[in-house]
Amino acid sequence: MTESTFWSQIAKKAKKQQRPFFTMAPMEAVSNTVFRQVIAKASAPDTFFSEFVYAKGITDKTTKFPVDGRLFIDPREQKKPVVQLWGDVASDFASGAEFLKSHGFSAVDINTGCPDKTVIKNHGGTYLIRNPEKIDDIVAATKQSNLAVSIKTRLGYSKVDEFNSWIPKLLSQQTDLLTVHLRTKMEMSKVPAHYEVIDDLIKMRDEIAPQTLLQINGDIPDYQAGLKLAQEHPGLDGIMIGRGVFANPFAFEQNQKKHSLNELLSLLRMQLDLFDDFATHYDVPRFPSLKRFFKIYARPELGAIDLRNEMMQAKSTDEVRQILDDFQK
């Protein structure tokens, strides 16, 4: 499969099954090789996105935002993720994409939607919504690699109606895929996603870039909810799920069923083992970064509040394993 057919192949396969394609969102300190494998074990999406990768950091090891393990692929991981790059210097995207191609990656995503203050301060993410003149050069530079190129964004920076000018600007780039998080930067995730504009986005896509696939993101908890949205809005190609995996690691399961606490804790044990393996290659992430995941597995509705609280006091993966052993005696 050539890079240029990456997204079309994914869309074609999903269309044969009369459904949209599903992806897991790029999430910092979450969408790494460890957690991607955990979700793949539970129920895999059609493809994954990586953590945020600073474009300049790929070829310049002196930057303050090093790549570290963000591009590490565990040999057990079946598919390489779509790598999401951030920054605002076109030449950094060109060199970064060339590096990715030379290392076997097939697709790259341009981050114009991250609302994080540090990213914005360093001219990435939603900074680009307020500096749209940079987009042409960034996309053109990224396309030089002949990788599949996509863009992820938000509706606007401060106001929802900014999408009326911002989205056409992005569609005019004629990328393979456009993913829209249905909120503004200022809204973060504090308000419901604006599903009311989905049909407007589809119309814009059809008029400006009919060959560009359209994917939406925001408040979509699982496969069934995503499928329903796609059925209600014909023309949507893809559904991206982000925070939904924190409520349910089986979010991409097509035939939903109840999962026992033991099943969930088995996934946690898998994550602990993969985390330790990952740590042999890189000094990051540190153990405390694992604690955000405990709520995924030790669910209150399954009577695991005390278990979760105890694990939160642990200081190592071995301590967590011992706590699990004692709990599951």
From TrEMBL:
It is an enzyme of class 1 (oxidoreductase). The active site is at 114 (proton donor). The keyword tRNA processing applies. Its EC number is 1.3.1.-. Keywords: Flavoprotein, FMN, Nucleotide-binding, Oxidoreductase, tRNA processing. It comes from the Bacteria. Residues 24-265 form the DUS-like FMN-binding domain. InterPro entries: Aldolase_TIM, DUS-like_FMN-bd, DUS_fam. FMN binds at residues 84, 152, 181, 242-243. Its cofactor is FMN. One of its GO terms (molecular function) is tRNA dihydrouridine synthase activity. Gene3D superfamilies: Aldolase class I. Catalyzes the synthesis of 5,6-dihydrouridine (D), a modified base found in the D-loop of most tRNAs, via the reduction of the C5-C6 double bond in target uridines. Belongs to the dus family. This is tRNA-dihydrouridine synthase.
